[in-house]
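CO-FOLDING WORKSHEET

Operator: S.A.
Ligand of interest: pyridoxal-5'-phosphate
Run index: 387
Mode: holo prediction, single chain
Checklist:
[x] sequence pasted
[x] SMILES validated
[ ] output reviewed
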Amino acid sequence: MPSISRRVQAIKISDTKLMPMIAAKVGGCVSLGQGVPSFATPEHVVDAVCAALRQDPGAGKYTLQPGLPALRQAVAELLAREKGVNADPETEIVITVGAMEALLAAILTLVERGDEVLIPSPYYASHVEQILLAEGVPVPVALRPDDWGLDIAALERAVTPRTKAVLLCNPSNPTGMVYPDADLRALAALCERHGLFVISDETYDSLTFDGPMPLSLASLPELAGRVVLVNSFSKRFALTGWRVGYAYAARPLMDELLKVHDCTAICAPAPSQVAALAALTGPQQVFEQMRTALKARRKLACARLDELAEHFSYIRPTGAFYIMARYTFSAESSRELAQRMIREARVITIPGGAFGSEGQGHLRLSYGANEVEINEAFDRIGSWVLS
Ligand SMILES: Cc1ncc(COP(=O)(O)O)c(C=O)c1O
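OUTPUT RECEIVED:
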C-alpha cells in the first residue's frame, strides 16, 4: 500500500469538531462547544438568495473567480469605512469559502517548507494545522497568562532567520481577548524590523463588547504590502453554514493568492455570495441585535461561572464569544475532562489543550448558544462538579 503524504499524516482534526462528534454518540448534550452563533439566517438574506435563484439563471453558477464584483465592492467599502483600509475591489479582494479557505490560501502563498510562523498561544487550532499542511513550522509564543495579552518581548525572542510570518487572531479565539492598539503597533514594528509577513485573522472584529473594533494591522502604512487580512461572514452575520469569507492583500500578494484560490475552490459558492451581499448591504439592525444578544450572553455566562468560583477561574473576555475557564477541581488533562463532562454531565466544551499547551488546564466555553441553553449547561455543570 503506498503511504499517504507526510504533510497530511502530520495534521489532525481539531477537538472543536471532534467533541460534538463524541457528544452525538452520547446523545442529549447541551453545547458550550463549537463557535456557532445560535441565530437563524435573517429573513432578508433568505429572501435575497431565493429571489436570485428564481430570477437569475447565473445565481446557481460559478461567479468570477475572485467573487461577485458587487460583493467585492461592498467589502472594499466596509474595509474603508470601518478599518481605514483602502482596497481596490478589482484586484485586492477575494471572496473565499469561509475565512478558512482564505487562511489556507494565505499560508500556502507565504509559507515554504521549514518556514517558521509565530503564533500567540493559546491559538486557534486550525491555524497550526494549516501551517503544518504547508510544511511550515508553527512557533507558539505564550500569551501573558495573567491577562492573555501579547508578550512582544517573547515574540521578539522567538524570531529566527527562518521566521517568515506572524499569524494573529484579533479578537482572539480561544481567549476572547481584544488586543490594545499599543500592542498591535508594537507587533507591527517588530514585523517591520524583521521583515515578516502578517496574516491577520479578523473573523471576530465586530464582536467587541467593551470598546471599538480593534485596529487592523492592514491599516498600518509600515506593513503595506505584507499583510493578508482575513475575515468571515460566519460570526458577525451568523452565516456559518453558508461558508463565505474574504481576504484583502495588496495587488502583488493577491495575484499569487488568487492562484491558490483558483486551484482549491475556483470561486466561493454563488448563492452564498448573494447571501453575503444581502447581509452587507441590507438592513443592519438584525445584526446589531445579535451583537447585543451576545453581549448579554457574555454577562450571563460570566455570572454563571462566578457562581462556580470554587471550581473555575477565568479572565473576563472582551470580545468574540469565548471564555477560557481554568478548572481547579481536577488534575485530569483538559481532553480527559472535556470527554468525561460529555459522558457524565452531557455538556460539550472544548479542551483548552487543543489550543496549545498554554491552554492546558482550561476548558473553552462558547456563549454562542441561546440563554436557555447556556443556563441549562451551567445547571448541569454545577450539579456535576458538586456530585
Ligand atoms: C479565529 C477563526 N478564524 C477562522 C474561522 C473560520 O471561519 P469560517 O467559518 O469563515 O471559515 C473561525 C471559525 O470558528 C475562527 O474562530
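REVIEW:
DSSP finds 13 helices and 13 strands in the chain.
The CA atoms of residues 200 and 229 lie 5 Å apart.
[x] output reviewed
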